[in-house]
Amino acid sequence: MNKRSIMIAGTTGLVGRALLNNALLDGSISVVHSISRRPLGVTHAKLHTHVVDFTDLPELPAVDEVYLAIGTTIKVAGSQAAFKAVDFDMNLAVAKAALAVGAKRVGVVSSMGANAQSRVFYTRVKGELEAAISALGFEYCVFARPSFLMGDRQALDQPKRLGERVGLACFNLLKPLVPRNYRPVAADDVANTLLRALAVVPQNVAANTVKGHQVFLSGDLHR
Questions:
Q1: CATH of the domain at 66
Q2: Alpha-carbon distance 151 to 122, whole Å?
Q3: Tens digit of pLDDT at every position of the chain (223 positions)
Q4: 121: Cβ–Cβ under 8 A, 6 or more apart, which residues?
């Protein structure tokens, strides 16, 4: 098997860091490029870090795969417009830049309920991002739509999000009754699902005879 070269955008976030940690341990991956807004404080023989301004990207390194995990909340961003500038504009900018230098496959951290026609602003933006990336021309796109995320945000100097705290509390009370797609999912499981999915691309897609995409609902992400 040829070794994979990958790029991960958003490695200072919960799923982005999980993607990074798992990619560094993956023997099928030879080179990992981290694209982030601030330094990581992580070193590894196959890791190349790039601190960038996502609104003015430099030319990115050539890779086989790109993973998009840039995200914020409306509370942190300050407004819906500022939120969309991060979750939509920045992810799409990286996707376009990676495609321009030869990336053929893309993995995207989306959200449960992502739908470009949704009346809910958050899920509509996520759906719009999925649609925009699907239209770019990658040979293969994989979208992960997690429910409430579990992980150590404190290790990343991030506060726990209120929605996640409430969701986890409700889940613990009602666990037997909660449908699989609504159960909390570990950031590590989201990361591993994306890395595995792009490692085993259908042969007809890899041969560029057809372009395709795959969606993993939250229930599909559990280990």
A1: 3.40.50.720
A2: 21
A3: 578 999 999 999 999 999 999 999 999 999 999 999 988 888 999 999 999 999 999 999 999 999 999 999 888 899 999 999 999 999 999 999 999 999 999 999 999 999 999 999 999 999 999 999 999 999 999 999 998 887 665 555 555 555 556 656 665 655 666 667 667 888 999 999 999 999 876 555 544 444 678 999 988 887 6
A4: 74, 80
In which domain, by residue range, is 87 found? 4-220
- Measured at the CA of 28, the angle between CA 203 and CA 199, to 5 degrees, comes to 30
What is the rounded CA–CA span in Å between residue 73 and residue 84?
9
Closest C-alpha among 56, 68, 53 to residue 138: 68
HSE-CB at 152 with a 13 A cutoff on CA atoms is 4
Which residue in 156, 157, 178 sits closest to 168, CA to CA?
178
Q: Based on the structure, what is the number of domains in the chain?
A: 1
Positive or negative, the Cα torsion across 89, 58, 11, 13? Answer: negative
